[in-house]
């Protein structure tokens, strides 16, 4: 493979875009090398500017659950575009997709659309604070909820402690209101709640973490969180930006049979257009402006093109036709194939999988939280990533990302992926 045109395009991009990219992980900083510029995509494949073809396991970081350029989604957007691209007024399609989403997802009466997962999580937290009248929030180390200030927080010193900013530009004041807990460690969460009694508005969590590789919750962890929230008048927010409409029609709430008070969406809900949303029971959602005092707004929120893409996507997922079963089977097949290869070459690893999310950590220890995820052999991951890329398999350029399986993948694609894994692992 040669990447001449991608390299030239990156050099041009670097002159006018910071780091040459509009979102940092695209820059290959974690794995080294020059990012690949994609020209087009169809089904399970990406084609780059040098006409190299890849089997795609990033899938735009989640949205493309049915494959790239999926015809019903593309057609819906084209048709809508002909009628005008944005009006800044209410449109009928917003209610249509809202009704569909509310019918698919448990425990939500109302939903508000925004333009990204970041906005969804930021707004859900503001609503939780406005609703409860409390300031502090608990998030989990290694969970990502977008780049709004309250979430760009790392652990401060001490066991039960305030967070500190992990990006310049986030103020100490903001960081003080975010408390950091260990994923899958209910005792730790309980101790933080105990030390901050009556101050915590919400606990926000990725019910299946996808931003430290794929890390499913331990059994009863989410149930215990639910009880802890109930006992302390704390809202439980599920950030289902990755898991929503992916792990099941009703997302992680349905899969684990646990109700959240607020749920955040992104990715799949927009069919690949910029959409996020947050949702909950009417009694909470009615605190939003213009009904209630908690302010939240957006010029392009509910944009007709974005809603058309999202509606086409959700409509197909709602019909189901075996999609979720197929996705889980394909993911299990890939898991077994890669596991056999890694065992054959005696490469220490842990594969985590749930539904259509899967990741390989190059570490033998069980991966249950950020600390254990960070124990993976990063040099080995880099070599694996570049090896797979050379073989025409595009996985996320970071060991801390989940792979997303799309229904467009065939078993032939999966076999090719496993064969690529075999070739690469023989050299690791
Ligand atoms: N929450 C989760 C769980 C995410 O994975 C992401 C993005 N990867 C976000 C929030 C932020 O979404 P966006 O990038 O659309 O702002």
The residue fraction in helices comes out at 25-40%
Look at the helices and sheets and give the structural class: alpha/beta
Radius of gyration (Å): 21 Å
Q: Tally of extended strands?
A: 16
Summarize the biggest pleated sheet. 7 strands, mixed
CATH class of the largest domain: Alpha Beta
Number of helical stretches of at least 4 residues: 14
Spans of 5+ residues with little confidence (pLDDT < 50)?
A: none
CATH level 4 superfamily of the largest domain: Type I PLP-dependent aspartate aminotransferase-like (Major domain)
Mean pLDDT: 96
Tally of distinct domains:
2
Strand percentage: 15-25%
Description:
The protein has 428 residues and is an alpha/beta fold. It has 2 domains: 4-69 and 322-425, Aspartate Aminotransferase, domain 1; 71-319, Aspartate Aminotransferase, domain 2. Helices cover 37% and strands 16% of the residues. The chain contains 14 helices and 16 strands. The radius of gyration is 21 Å and the shape is globular. 4'-deoxy-4'-aminopyridoxal-5'-phosphate binds at residues 61, 116-118, 121, 144-146, 206, 210-211, 239, 241-242, 266, 276.
